[in-house]
Amino acid sequence: MSYVTTKKLTVFDYINYSLLAIISIACVFPFIYVFSVSFTDPDVYVPLQFYFFPEKWSLSAYKYILSTNSFINALKSTVFVTGIGTVLSILISFTFAYVMTKKHVPGRKLMLGGVIFTLVFNAGILPNYLLMKDMNLLNSHWSLILSGLTNAWSLIVIKGFLDSLPPELEDAARIDGCSDIGVFWRIVIPLSMPAIAAFVLFFAVSYWNTYFNALVYLSDAKKWTLQVLVKSLVIDSDASGAGSVGSDDRVLPQETIRMASIVLAMVPILVIYPFLQKHFAKGVMLGSVKG
């Protein structure tokens, strides 16, 4: 017969849980406000009033944003940068990390030392800008992709994961006639799917949220990413609250347009995350312990 013992909560536990609940609610409030304002009908919108739920639901702000060329161009730019950048980042990161796991590769220690060196030291904004300028990549989406292909932390974690794979599998593949490239694509990559899924999420979120590099490297407004466009709508737009005319000839409050743009910028990542979340912790932890 088994007995289930329950821990008696102390005064500290009650205080701790209460504080955590208050902090959690405080973190949720901004999201509730953004969603509520974005769906509020312009006829009943009152500035600076908090809404749990819209008094009257409307998609006017979303219809207006999705009908503008600036948002469509920004969405295309962000999808291009995120899609191409994520694929190239995964390819570069896993091939480079795989090379660093091979002790017989000449210059392996030098490469690994260079990666670790960049954990502490960074070239900075100006050298990176001059590099993009010399490569004729300014005002190009490729400047956003190539400047963030990989990073030292990702390489070290991926290397740790690849080190944990049984070397006997590679030896067996080579006995069967596989080349080094064949071993990588047919053995290593299929076994690395949990780690790949985790880093797809890392890189995709990073590229989707690209803001500073886009602000520095892109001068043409038609090539802006979503984050730069949202910043322009939220910060640079008229603070007087003057709205825009929607498709139904109503004047839309500027605040509803801003909040709707923020929601549209967040939704794609929020939709993708649940599909990769189950691989997230497993993929990262496999790279942290060799065994």
TrEMBL record:
Superkingdom of the organism of origin: Bacteria
SUPFAM superfamilies named among the record's database cross-references: MetI-like
Spans traversing the lipid bilayer: 12-35, 79-98, 110-130, 183-208, 257-276
Chief location: membrane
One Pfam family named in its UniProt record: BPD_transp_1
Membrane topology recorded in Swiss-Prot or TrEMBL: Multi-pass membrane protein
A biological process term (GO) from this entry: transmembrane transport
Presence of the UniProt keyword Transmembrane in the record: yes
Keyword Acyltransferase in annotation: no
PROSITE patterns: ABC_TM1, PROKAR_LIPOPROTEIN
Compartment annotation: Cell membrane
Keywords: Cell membrane, Membrane, Transmembrane, Transmembrane helix, Transport
Domain ABC transmembrane type-1: 75-276
InterPro entries the UniProt entry points to: MetI-like (IPR000515), MetI-like_sf (IPR035906)
One GO CC annotation: plasma membrane
Family classification: Belongs to the binding-protein-dependent transport system permease family.
Name of this chain's protein: ABC transporter permease subunit
Source organism (scientific name): Paenibacillus silvestris
Record lineage: Bacteria, Bacillati, Bacillota, Bacilli, Bacillales
